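Notes, p. 3: input format for complexes.
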Amino acid sequence: MMETSILSLAAASLRNRLGSATLTILAVALSVTLFLGVEKSRTAMRTSFDNTISGTELIVGAPTGATNLLLHAVFHIGTPQAELSWSRYQEIAARPDIAWAAPVILGDSHRGFDVLATNQTYFDHYKFGRDRSLELASGEIMTDIFDAVVGASVAAELGYDIGTPLILSHGIESTGHAHHDDRPFRIVGILKPTGTPVDRTVHIGLEGLTAMHVGWETGSRHHLADSITTEMIRSFDLTPDSVSAVFIGLKDKTTILQTRRALNSQREEPVTAIIPGQTLTQLWRLVGTFERLLIGVSIFVIAVGMTSILTSMLSSLNERRREMSVLRAVGAGPRHILMLLVSECGLLGLIGASAGVCFTQILILVINPVLVSTVGMELAGTAPGLTDFLTVVSVSVLALIIGFWPAWTATRNSIGDGLAIKL
Amino acid sequence: MNSTAITIEISDLEYAWPNQGPLLQLKSFTVAAGESLCLLGPSGTGKSTLLSLIAGVLEPQKGRLQVCGSALEALSSHQRDQLRADHIGIIFQMFNLVPYLSVLQNVLLPCRFSPRRRNRFERPESMVEDAKRLLCQLGLDAPDLLSRPVRDLSVGQQQRVAAARAMIGAPELIIADEPTSALDRDNRNRFVRLLQDEAKASGATLLFVTHDQGLASQFDRTVTLDDINHITTPTGTA
Ligand SMILES: Nc1ncnc2c1ncn2[C@@H]1O[C@H](COP(=O)(O)OP(=O)(O)OP(=O)(O)O)[C@@H](O)[C@H]1O
Ligand SMILES: [Mg+2]
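Output follows (661 residues plus adenosine-5'-triphosphate):
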């Protein structure tokens, strides 16, 4: 009874100072919103980052740094110095400890989206998230040389559908002169969204890529290229000379380190073999410093919110001295005065933090459609959960704790004042 | 109802504010149960300080203070707060009300802190009924008054709300510290009479402090602080 009574007094007192209380609550709410916003986008980024690739034990490429290889093969960022010869790929694929090996060739693009040439093995074994395979939203995996399968964002952003012809360009420029417009591809399949770089990729067959480059062997268009008909191309041997990287699955996952060592220590035509999960973690550590900085900043912002509670409480104390005397007169002890002010601070913290959680959810509701239309995915795991709960609890507890400062001042005043009503 | 028949009994009391010379030195001072007593004295002589001591908000450096059957020196500060909540109603000179509570909530405030005063009523509704009855007898019977914010009341109305609050739940002792100094003569006399009547009706002891000699005649007994206080020269100001 006593405790609820003090709480209701605290609530009534806050309601009485609605203007200043609202401002304080707003300050706390905004600071919590910033903190949760940073925290949620960080975890969403981390999750989608970690979920980019799974089920692939090793990625092999021409000798380079581990993160470089990962960035290139999985995120399609940067250009590799060298490629792996086709015969080397075949050797690797033939190793007895390897269950599957999917070659990929990168380097071309289509209107800003990456083109990845590969084979059926890639579609069978590429996994993301928690062992999720690539799935078709419509159509089928390519069978013909000039077939293409596009990721969800490619189809959505460019308005493509099954049957749409594609003109791929050499290199990464989205507009410009180097179009392979003599060899149009046709979309036969559209993948379901994955939230990974796959969504922004145009997949074609290995033969398709070679066919596209017939007449372009020097890197620019050969003057006789026009004279080579598509029928002639189909009769050529279209096996590529080299690949950008090979995705590998092992028969026995426990041999992963031996296999990797064996591949890395190859003398002639040396290769780099990386464990994607491991390298992802390394890569994230690079981003980590920035991440910690962001968290540091948002914790400071929470501290600013707390300070605004302190400011508003301390500045109200003098005008509340009479109120405290009245409460003392009707039987309130110093304990009650302490409890009253501490619970006012706690309420400010609790309401502010809860409002902050609501603001964050509203913000996410607004931002997600924008993200879906630009990046093709929304922030994952942003529903209110343990983090929000813990934030509300910690902010409230923190507010309660700092509440002891004004509460202590008020208590000391009220003891010193006796029963006299002072100005 | 009160078996001791003495509500306040003070012996050999001494009090000084921190870092000040002695202010009060009382050999013996008694107020009988049901008595209405007027305590007179010029400003700064320590009347309010004495009331704080009786109410258990301040602790004397020396002496014994028996209030409503309890020896204050034997009580912890928490027990003294509870004693005040349970047995004493207090009215100040002004600013008696908690600004963020309505008239009714202000009147019922002591019941929040005192289960004893709360339990005088069988049901919460009868508590509200009694608050209305008290306000009505004090001349506050406007129908919308109960839920009005206390800021909207005149000073005289505020003092009457404070009187109703002091008397809710029938405490044994009503302490009034110059409750009429902000009122004009007519209102002052009426207020004192209302207070007297209410105290008599509930059998409460009334300890009324004022420096207005004109009010003295309305009380059972009048005491001047200087007559009982052995420190005659007030410290500091003239
Ligand atoms: N909270 C306090 N801290 C320190 N000294 C105080 C305090 N309250 C009162 N005093 C001192 O005690 C003395 C008596 O003050 P008190 O308020 O008891 O007088 P009073 O008789 O009630 O006067 P008034 O008629 O003006 O209300 C004064 O000299 C004052 O300076
Ligand atoms: Mg006084």
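Chain A has two domains: 2-49+286-419, 58-274.
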